[in-house]
Design the sequence.
């Protein structure tokens, strides 16, 4: 076998390239592993191998491949039992398992499908046939995972982008917001203080230590194309941020923030879509409009409405003072007036009323 690292102990975490789909081959015959590994590596796959079912499960506990090529008959835990364990993990719901078997009896074929297999090839395997089947199932599985993620995201302004900046999918709302980045108005300054203000009520998490647009340069980007068009790309300012985000260790608490025309724009990574692809959420906050609405609804002054806005986002008096440029004791005075006008006695009650009344601006 060309790459001895493929036979590292199963508890070892291998280094795998983001750009290649990964196939786990499980077979107790080293010659079969060598043939299949060479074939799939030549076809552009990264390959992991396991000599038995238990080792395969240990591998899968640490990494999720794009497909599993599984020998049906192995000593100890056979392929059918191994597949049952694989499919018991919800993370492997869409993981295609392809059986390799010399058994052509329909009973064994049916058994493979019953335990969660998606296809089978007969031994002796034909390398080109195996490559073609794996390619088809990997593509179908990736599309299914992306479709599931899209459904979970719903109507939010979300997109899926590769590390290179190429957009794999985008919602209609995301396309509209990307156009505003690409129009050249996304050149604001982001820093840890401003990023900390970007906490909102989505429950996505803080963005302390944001990587912003300070010092980012580049040519004016083109507008992205329609959804799922290959070749459409993130605007340059977001593509550069994503690159820096990945280089910084993929910290999910780190976001990009800009401000233009009184609107704050925040981009954050929610997690992986597939290996090498990331789900990015684009949020916009019109703090001025939100403050005006709170003032009108509850009879607050502009300053009181600003204090209530940041209180509803979980900020302390010191935080609010830093954000609005006032002393904490002044914040406390404004809060006393806010409590009176809202007829409440606690910060939690005031925040709850503001959250219930607020609309996303």
Sequence:
């Amino acid at each position: 076998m060309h790459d001895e690292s493929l036979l590292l102990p199963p508890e070892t975490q291998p280094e795998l390239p983001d750009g290649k789909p990964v196939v786990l081959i499980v077979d107790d015959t080293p010659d079969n592993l060598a043939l299949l590994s060479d074939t799939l590596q030549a076809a552009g796959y990264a390959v992991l191998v396991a000599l038995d079912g238990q080792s395969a499960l240990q591998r899968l506990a640490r990494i999720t491949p794009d497909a599993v090529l599984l020998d049906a008959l192995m000593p100890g835990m056979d392929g059918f039992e191994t597949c049952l364990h694989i499919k018991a993990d919800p993370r492997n719901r869409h993981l295609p398992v392809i059986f390799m078997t010399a058994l052509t009896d329909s009973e064994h074929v049916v058994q493979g499908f019953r335990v969660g297999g998606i296809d089978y090839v007969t031994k002796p395997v034909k390398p080109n046939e195996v490559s073609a089947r794996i390619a088809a199932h990997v593509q179908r599985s990736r599309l299914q995972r992306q479709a599931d993620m899209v459904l979970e995201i719903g109507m939010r302004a979300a997109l899926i982008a590769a590390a290179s900046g190429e957009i794999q999918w985008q919602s209609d709302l995301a396309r509209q917001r990307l156009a505003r980045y690409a129009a050249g108005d996304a050149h604001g300054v982001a820093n840890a203080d401003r990023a900390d203000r970007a906490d909102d009520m989505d429950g996505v998490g803080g963005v302390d230590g944001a990587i912003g647009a300070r010092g980012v340069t580049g040519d004016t980007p083109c507008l992205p194309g329609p959804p799922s068009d290959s070749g459409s790309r993130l605007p340059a300012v977001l593509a550069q941020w994503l690159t820096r985000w990945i280089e910084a260790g993929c910290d999910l608490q780190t976001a990009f923030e800009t401000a233009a025309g009184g609107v704050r724009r925040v981009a954050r990574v929610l997690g992986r879509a597939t290996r090498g692809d990331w789900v990015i959420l684009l949020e916009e906050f019109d703090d001025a409009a939100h403050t005006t609405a709170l003032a009108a609804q509850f009879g607050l002054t502009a300053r009181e409405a600003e204090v209530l806005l940041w209180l509803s986002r979980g900020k302390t008096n010191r935080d609010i003072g830093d954000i609005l440029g006032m002393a904490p004791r002044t914040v406390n005075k404004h809060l006393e007036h806010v409590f009176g006008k809202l007829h409440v006695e606690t910060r939690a009650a005031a925040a709850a009323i503001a959250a219930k009344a607020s609309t996303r601006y």
Confidence is low (pLDDT under 50) at residues 1-13, 185-230.
